[in-house]
Amino acid sequence: MAFLKDCQEVTLYDTIIFMTATGHALIGAVIAAKIGNPYLAIPIAIVSHFAADIYPHWDSGTNGSKKTKKRFLTEAVVDVLVGFVASYMLLTSFFPQTNLLYALIIVIAAQLPDWATAPYLIGIKKQPFISFYKFQSRFNTRLDKPWGIITQIFAISLLILLAKFF
Fold first, then answer.
1. d(Cα 130, Cα 164) in Å, to the nearest integer?
2. pTM for the whole thing?
3. Least crowded by CB within 10 Å, which of 39, 83, 100, 153?
4. Do 63 and 16 contact (CB within 8 A), yes or no?
C-alpha cells in the first residue's frame, strides 16, 4: 500500500463525489431484474458501481467542503432511503416478476463500495477504510448541478428503457 503514503488525507469536508446511492440502487434493481443468477449478478452489481462513478454526475457529496457534517450525513441517509424506495417502485412497476429479497441483495451489492467507504467518511481513518476510500475515489467524475443531475437521470432512464425492452 505504498500509494497511500503519497496521498494526502482527504477529510469529510473535501469535495467527495460519488454517483448518488439512488442511482446505484436503480442500476442494481435493473441488474436483479435482468440477471437471475446471483453468482453473476453480485459481481456485476459491484463492478457497475465503479463504471457508474466514472460517468459525470452530481450527488450529496458534491461541494462537500461547503456542507456541515450533519447536512452531508442527512443528505446521504435520505439518498439511500430514496434509492430503496425508488428501486421498489421500479421493480413493482416495470419488473414485477423480480423477487424483492433477491433485488435488495443486488441493490446493496451495487451500493457496496460506498458502504465500504462510509466509515472513512464519518471519521474512522483506519485500514481497510482508507484503502477503500482511496481506491473508489479514483473512479469518480465530478459535475455540479444542474448538469450532474441531468446526466445521471439520462443515463439511468436509458438503462431502464433498454432493460425493459430488451
1. 38
2. 0.83
3. 39
4. no
